[in-house]
Write a structure and sequence with these properties.
The chain is of the alpha+beta class and 338 residues long. Helix 2 packs antiparallel against helix 7 and helix 4 packs antiparallel against helix 9. It starts with a strand and ends with a helix. It binds flavin-adenine dinucleotide.
């Protein structure tokens, strides 16, 4: 498995890498040797890095002349000397540590996406694993190529699978309380499907419209505009999907007791009475826990920022859209000469 490391710690976002108080907030060159390079710096939010055999490290964005020391692309083995992974810690981590019963977890089979902060402290990379070293003019291109694939699959398509689960949970929640045929509930479910299938379609379109890049290389990359559309639509749509599922699931999604309390001789009978509806109490609580995991946890910001903050996709729209041809078509229909 190979993970992809783009996001530098970045420090003060207004400043260029060379202007930072501590340049370690960007991965950078420390020394060039005959046999390879020495690198230091920090990449953050690295999905799956700790569990991958290798990480492909790329620059965090376009770079200019004078920023050569940050223009690096290389592959690093997991566990190479000087490389430290510091794992994320959040409410899901705590829940997993503390629980003594799997029913207390919203996603017991797969858990959560594990990211880590990767600290490079004078890590040696042999030349055969170095792909860029100082060539600033290629940084923008290499990042864009990575981003277009990432936005189609991670930003767009993968979240469609998440949303399929949320929609499934929401429909079950509606059935277990007897509201599944009520018009506004059906409307919310259809809205979730509309948002989700739009992202699905954009991701498929990005793949279908993919092109060989560069020509003759045999490497095909997704269409940039559709890939960015998939990710941006998902970023906005996912909050709506979470909102609708939270609505349908009711307050129980965040106020439920533990599932195993249903079997407690003292409080179990009252809880069964309280939470039985058209579906049995245990199924209602199980669905509530599932929806809690998907709608009241980390997935909002995760989906928003994963594959790049939405402002980056908006920027790509301005770069990739041919506004001149749109103006020309509009003028033609209006009979405007100039
Ligand atoms: C679940 C998850 C998994 C991830 N996995 C990976 C991964 O595997 N590999 C990887 O490389 N990255 C990964 N990321 C990182 C992701 O790409 C970043 O979170 C994203 O690019 C935003 O960067 P940031 O988190 O540093 O936020 P920030 O840069 O702090 O952004 C916060 C806000 O500030 C704005 N902003 C920041 N800088 C500027 C600026 N210069 N000008 C104008 N506005 C600015 C942003 O648009 C945003 O609105 C992951 C993130 C998440 C949440």
């Amino acid at each position: 498995a190979v993970s992809g490391a783009i996001t530098d710690a970045k420090g003060d976002r207004k400043k260029r890498p060379t202007q930072q108080d501590d340049i370690d907030v960007f991965v950078h060159l420390v020394e060039k040797r005959d046999d390879g390079i020495i690198v230091s710096g920090i990449k953050v939010s690295q999905s799956g890095a700790i569990g991958s055999h290798e990480t492909l490290v790329l620059p965090g964005g376009s770079l200019k002349e004078g920023e050569e020391q940050f223009a690096l692309a290389f592959a690093v083995h997991n566990g190479d000397p000087g490389l430290t992974y510091i794992c994320q810690y959040n409410a899901y981590s705590a829940e997993r540590e503390m629980c003594d019963d799997e029913s207390d977890l919203g996603n017991p089979v797969y858990g959560q996406r594990e990211t880590s902060t990767m600290v490079f402290d004078k890590v040696f990379i042999p030349w055969e694993r170095v792909f860029l070293c100082g060539e600033t003019k290629y940084c923008g291109k290499i990042v864009t190529r990575f981003a277009k694939a990432h936005r189609m699959n991670c930003g767009g398509a993968c979240k469609v699978g998440f949303a399929d689960l949320i929609i499934g949970g929401a429909v079950l929640a509606a059935e277990y309380t007897g509201v599944e045929k009520i018009p506004h509930i059906q409307d919310k479910i259809i809205e979730m499907v509309r948002l989700n299938e739009t992202s699905h379609a954009c991701a498929i379109a990005a793949a279908m419209k993919g092109r060989e890049e560069p020509k003759g290389s045999g490497v095909y990359l997704p269409d940039d505009l559709f890939g960015n559309a998939a990710k941006l639509n998902t970023a906005h749509g996912f909050w709506e999907i979470m909102k609708n599922a939270g609505d349908i699931g009711g307050g129980l999604v965040v106020t439920m007791p533990r599932l195993k309390d249903l079997e407690d001789p003292e409080v179990g009978p009252a809880l069964k009475k309280a939470f039985s509806a058209t579906g049995p109490a245990d199924k209602r609580l199980k669905v509530a826990k599932f929806l809690q995991h998907w709608t009241a946890g980390l997935h909002g910001p995760g989906t928003w920022h994963g594959a790049g903050a939405p402002q980056s996709q908006r920027f790509m729209f301005t770069v990739l859209t041919d506004f001149e041809s749109k103006k020309k078509m509009a003028k033609k229909l209006m009979g405007m000469k100039e």
